[in-house]
Design brief:
By secondary structure, the protein is an alpha+beta fold. It has a domain at 38-216: 2-Layer Sandwich (Beta-Lactamase), CATH 3.30.450. It contains five helices and ten strands. The protein has helices at 2-69, 77-90, 115-123, 160-167, 222-267; strands at residues 94-101, 104-108, 127-130, 141-147, 151-158, 174-179, 182-185, 188-189, 200-206, 213-218. The protein has a five-stranded antiparallel beta sheet with strand order 2-1-5-4-3, with helices on both faces. Strands 8-7-6-10-9 form a five-stranded antiparallel beta sheet, covered by helices on one side. Strand 9 and strand 10 (213-218) form a beta hairpin. Helix 1 (2-69) packs antiparallel against helix 4 and helix 1 (2-69) runs antiparallel to helix 5 (222-267). The two termini are 19 Å apart. Residues 41-229 form the Putative cyclic diguanylate phosphodiesterase CSS motif-containing domain.
């Protein structure tokens, strides 16, 4: 009977040691996962706000160009076209400048049809993504409409400058800039068949200046992947803590057992 009780006591002690050793490991992993998720959520919110700031800066440069060009609106095309071409030449991201009167384009540094400029000006939008005329459909463009009294100007730039701003966020977050029903992100735009995945920690913010929306989120499975990588990094340290903790408890149990044996021997 005493052997059975001794074996049972030893089994209980073993289970206790395992449980005690696992406590710091399990609690450490839970804390790590909680902190990682909190960090990802915070990073998504901050990055979206910073993306709005960055894209605003890019559009501010287009706005400045539009304001410089607006005084030419209303002048005859022959007298100002050379000056317009000079402005385009010194700004690498500007594709074309177009002058309008009563929302009808009458002078542009762009070649081909100007019909889509008239449609854009009449839409009431200030900034929009454009596919441009058929000869430029391989490049996504940004149109910026600056109104005057009866005249206006449209600055057309390559959307690459917006994509360049998004490329600066190298933390796994997918950022998408949406202008109405058209959008752009680092690896594509609204001409693609499918939007990028942003299902984890999704957040968004609207530009107070220009009305576009930045949407941010991590692709599906990103959080699980980050947790796995973090587990591989901290698991050895947590296991070491668990072993040390278990060893301390084992020594305490060993001393308690020795004390019990000594007391029993004295009584006998």
């Amino acid at each position: 009977m005493s052997k059975i009780m001794h074996a049972g006591r030893s089994m209980v002690e073993l289970l206790l040691l395992i449980a005690v050793a696992l406590v710091p490991v399990v609690s450490g992993l839970l804390v790590m996962a909680f902190q990682l998720e909190a960090k990802l959520a915070e990073n998504a919110n901050i990055s979206v706000q910073e993306a709005v700031f960055s894209v605003d800066n890019a559009l501010d440069r287009m706005h400045e160009t539009a304001l410089r060009t607006l005084p030419f609106a209303g002048e005859s095309c022959d007298s100002v076209k050379s000056a317009l071409q000079d402005q385009v030449a010194i700004r690498s991201m500007i594709r074309s400048l177009t002058l309008l009167k009563d929302n009808q384009p009458y002078c542009s540094t762009a070649s081909g049809s100007l019909e889509h400029y008239s449609s854009f000006a009449s839409s009431g939008q200030r900034v929009a993504l454009s596919y441009g005329p058929p000869d430029t459909r391989q490049k996504l463009l940004v149109d910026f409409h600056q109104k005057g009294k009866s005249n206006s100007v449209i600055v057309t730039a390559y959307a690459m400058q917006i994509r360049n701003e998004l490329d600066g966020f190298l933390d796994g977050l997918t950022l998408l800039v949406e202008f109405g029903d058209r959008y752009i992100w680092s690896n594509g735009d609204s001409r693609d068949l499918k939007r990028p995945s942003q299902s984890e920690f999704f957040t968004s913010a609207m530009s107070a200046k220009y009305g576009y929306t930045v949407k941010g989120g991590y692709p599906e499975g990103f959080t699980a992947q980050e947790i796995r990588q973090s587990v591989l990094q901290i698991a050895p340290s947590l296991m070491l803590v668990g072993i040390v903790t278990g060893s301390i408890v084992y020594l305490a149990l060993f001393r308690a057992r020795a004390n019990r044996r000594g007391t029993a021997a004295e009584r006998s």
